[in-house]
Design goal:
The chain is of the alpha/beta class. The protein has a single domain, classed as Vaccinia Virus protein VP39 (Rossmann fold), CATH 3.40.50. It is built from ten helices and seven strands. It has a seven-stranded mixed β-sheet with strand order 3-2-1-4-5-7-6, with helices on both faces. α2 packs across α6 and α5 packs parallel to α6. The chain is globular and about 45 Å long. The termini are far apart. The structure holds S-adenosylmethionine. S-adenosylmethionine binds next to α7 and α10.
Length: 228
């Protein structure tokens, strides 16, 4: 994503798109590596074409500094990972992990996931992670939350039947918001068998940077659904 693109009026992100200046190494990765592992600029996005030869394909939305994304990609070299994040410094950090850990199974895109989700091929993903999305506490900002009927429809369309969705948050009103969004939707099957399940970090979870800061108003909850 170029500076001109982030300046476009239709670019509807509400957070920061860049923080402190990148190091020379990070800038080099953004200039020279990112274009080769980015999503196609137009047309359908087929994860299997982007990351061929992988047993399954996973998307992480808003990966922040990329700790969870890179950690998962390192643990599962036969799974293809795609990360989408608008914040340039986060993308640069993830590129650094990718290089240091030799993560050939990782593609990255700098941008707003809401712009690209509709371009993903139907039933093409095995899993989606949305971990600690920006909370937008105020009621009048609720429309800015990533979880909306439109993104729920995107998730339902692009996940394979049996594909998994995990949303984590440490903001009680966001957890409630997600439960209300998904509980009436027969396309998603709630996975926790007892109420307390969702308060226990799942065994495959890797703590994120944001999560470790304990900024929310409740302990982290992990909401897992399976696409019917
Ligand atoms: C609270 S941070 C959490 C980051 C990371 N998941 C973690 O737990 O450390 C929310 C992240 O979502 C990203 N984000 C916000 N809106 C987004 C969007 N529309 N598409 C993709 N990412 C987005 C932000 O840039 C930020 O990095």
């Amino acid at each position: 994503m170029t500076k001109q693109e982030t300046d476009r009026p239709e670019f509807r992100l509400f957070g920061r798109a860049q923080g402190k200046p990148l190091s020379a190494r990070q800038q080099g990765l953004v200039d020279n590596v990112l274009p080769g592992i980015d999503l196609p600029a137009a047309g359908e996005i087929d994860a299997a074409q982007l990351l061929p030869g992988m047993g399954s394909h996973v998307l992480e939305i808003g990966f922040g500094g990329g700790e969870h994304l890179a950690g998962q990609a390192e643990r599962h070299p036969q799974t293809g990972y795609i990360g989408i994040e608008p914040f340039l410094n986060g993308v640069a950090k993830a590129l650094t992990y990718r290089e240091e850990l030799g993560l050939e199974n990782l593609c990255l895109h700098r941008g707003d996931a809401r712009d690209v989700l509709p371009r993903f091929k139907a039933e093409s993903l095995d899993r989606i992670f949305l971990l600690f999305p920006d909370p937008w506490h105020k009621k009048r900002h609720a429309k800015r939350r990533f979880v909306q009927p439109s993104t729920r429809d995107d998730f339902a369309r692009i996940l394979k039947p049996g594909g998994k969705l995990r949303i984590a948050t440490d903001v009680k009103s966001y957890a409630d918001h997600c439960m209300i969004e998904f509980e009436q939707d027969a396309r998603f099957i709630w996975q926790a068998s007892v109420a307390d399940d969702w308060r226990v970090p799942p065994p495959d979870h890797i703590q994120t940077r944001y999560e470790s800061k304990n900024l929310g108003d409740c302990a982290p909850v992990f909401m897992d659904w399976v696409r019917a």
